[in-house]
Amino acid sequence: MTSETAKVSLRDRNIGEIAAALPGATAVFRKFKLDFCCGGDLTLGEVASKRGLDIASIEGALAALDPNAGLTVPEETGPLIDHILSRYHETHRRELPELIRLARKVEAVHAVHPQAPIGLADTLHEMHSELEVHMQKEEMELFPLMRRDGDPLDALSIEQMRDDHHRHGDHLRRLEEIANGFVPPEGACRSWQALCAGGAKLVDDVMEHIHLENNVLFPRFGQPESAGHAYPAGSTTAVQPDAQR
Q1: Which residue in 224, 212, 223, 222 sits closest to 80, CA to CA?
Q2: Is the separation of the CB atoms in 229 and 60 below 8 Å?
Q3: Which of 8, 54, 128, 187 has CA 20 to 30 A from 155's CA?
Q4: Cβ-contact 80, 238 below 8 angstroms
Q5: Quick check: helix, strand or coil at residue 43?
Q6: What pLDDT is attached to residue 151?
Q7: How far is 11 from 8, CA to CA, in rounded Å?
Q8: In the predicted model, is pLDDT for residue 141 greater than 70?
Q9: pLDDT over 50 at 33, yes or no
Q10: Residue 14, SS3?
Q11: pLDDT tens sequence across 167-191
């Protein structure tokens, strides 16, 4: 954080800005089940008030973080896009088909179990399809223009990408509801345990993916985050908001 932004109290800063500027903040937000990506334009105080949370506890957890902790994401736009492609686009394409397979197996084998995640496979499949279309639009149109420092809005609206992100967030909420927060029941088989572990990772990956685009990449092209909705989000990577292209 710069000295100027540090003068503004945490509760008066946008949650997305904090997530982007303070390494480790996203882990704190995940702990308190605060949305730092789709709802990133709300202030910390507004989000805490809506959720009925103790703002002092959140501020204390954020204040305890080391602002000089090492960054794990490239600062320049080109390398940042490369990171998003390799870390998230490739990962989603590799891991979602296996999660769908596991979900169908668990639903079939444990259909009579009271906690069986019925409908999980279909929801994962729907999310996979929507993510694929979204990622292709970024790869073929949006990201190439950003690399050339052109106006990405001439080819594809960043706001449309944000709308897609909100739908992805809706899918994640639904997935967690169906799968009981991806906590396996006592005595769950290894396939069910693997499904829960992979599903929890998917939630963290997609939320971090959205965060990097909404709060770090897109604002470099004149598109600040629009109002979002509260969602239990999280993961642990953070980058500097003032990075240059």
Answers
A1: 212
A2: no
A3: 128
A4: no
A5: strand
A6: 63
A7: 8
A8: yes
A9: yes
A10: strand
A11: 998 999 999 999 999 999 998 888 8
CA distance 1 to 69: 12
Sign of CA dihedral 17, 19, 20, 24: positive
Name the burial class of residue 10, with classes exposed (0-12), middle (13-18) and buried (19+) by CB atoms within 10 angstroms of its CB: buried
Q: What is the pLDDT of residue 72?
A: 65
Q: Where are the alpha helices (DSSP H) in 32-157?
A: 44-51, 55-63, 77-84, 90-109, 120-137, 143-147
Residue 45 Cα to chain centre, angstroms: 20
Q: Are 171 and 179 in contact (CB under 8 A)?
A: no
Q: Which tokens is 37 given?
A: 């990506």
Instruction: Tell me what pLDDT residue 7 has.
Output: 54
Scanning the structure block, which residue is given the tokens 């990449």?
Answer: 217
- Please check whether residue 11 is in contact with residue 44, taking contact to mean a CB–CB distance below 8 angstroms: yes
Closest of 228, 242, 206, 168 to residue 15, by C-alpha: 228
Q: Which two tokens mark 142?
A: 């949006």
CB 210 within 8 A of CB 147: no
Instruction: Provide the total of helices (H) and of strands (E) in the chain, helices listed first.
Output: 11, 0
Greatest Cα pair distance, the chain, in angstroms, is 58
- Residue 103's pLDDT is 95
- Total residues belonging to the chain: 245
Give φ, ψ of 14 to 5 degrees: -65, 140
Residues 196-222 pLDDT 10s: 988 988 998 999 899 999 988 988 887
CB environment 134-167: b (16+ within 10 A), e (fewer):
bbebbeeebbebbeeeeebeeebebeebbebbbe
